[in-house]
Design a protein that fits this description.
This protein has one domain: P-loop containing nucleotide triphosphate hydrolases (Rossmann fold, 3-Layer(aba) Sandwich). It has 6 helices and 6 strands; from the N terminus they run E-H-E-H-E-H-E-H-H-E-H-E. The relative contact order is 0.23.
Length: 185
């Protein structure tokens, strides 16, 4: 089998990178959609940075990111789920590290920046709205920015060029089926 290493095509920049995408809602598929966009962009020769904010870096796609040329993956590391009492200091620490990496990616020439679960970092209060708004402004008309999460504030929806809401109609989790490796994570 022949290895495929996409050649970086600087003409792609002339197509007008720098639009803002948000994928939000209670339905599943937000991260999966952003992974698809990341793979498509890397296949076209764009440099992609995929940053996970509220995840532990152990889902099925992570191993693939390390072998797909053009995708740079970053996750601050494992942490516990946020319990009803609210976020812990580790969640705040991880959100700040992920945000710092996202800013570095912009400075280092990323064409596409995926901030997976950044909207949940807003919901749980581990990142302020201003930090996400600043990221949007840094990316606008320069870096294609994709953000995911369960909900999006109106300010973020208005700032986005693409806003896709995922609506769950049915999910086996609510019938007692545990998340399955390779399917849900």
């Amino acid at each position: 089998m022949k290895s495929y290493y996409p050649k970086r095509d600087n003409r792609l920049k002339e197509q007008g990178l720098g639009m803002i995408h948000i994928c939000y809602g209670r339905g599943s598929g937000k991260t999966t959609r952003s992974i698809g966009l990341a793979v498509r962009a890397a296949g076209a020769g764009l440099q992609v940075h995929f940053v996970q904010y509220m995840k532990s870096g152990d889902s099925g796609e992570v191993d693939m990111f390390h072998v797909i040329p053009g995708i740079i993956y970053y996750c601050p590391g494992p942490h516990p789920f946020i319990k009803p009492g609210g976020p812990e200091s580790i969640h705040i620490h991880h959100a700040r590290k992920a945000q710092a990496h996202a800013k570095e990616a912009i400075q280092n020439g990323a064409d596409v920046l995926v901030c997976d679960e950044i909207l949940n970092a807003l919901i749980f209060g581990v990142l302020p709205l201003e930090a996400v708004e600043e990221l949007i402004e840094r990316c606008r008309q320069r870096v294609e920015l994709v953000m995911t999460g369960s909900d999006a504030p109106d300010e973020i929806i208005r700032a986005a060029d693409y806003a896709t809401e995922f609506i769950q109609k049915k999910h086996p989790y609510y019938e007692g089926v545990a998340a399955r490796r390779g399917i849900e994570f």
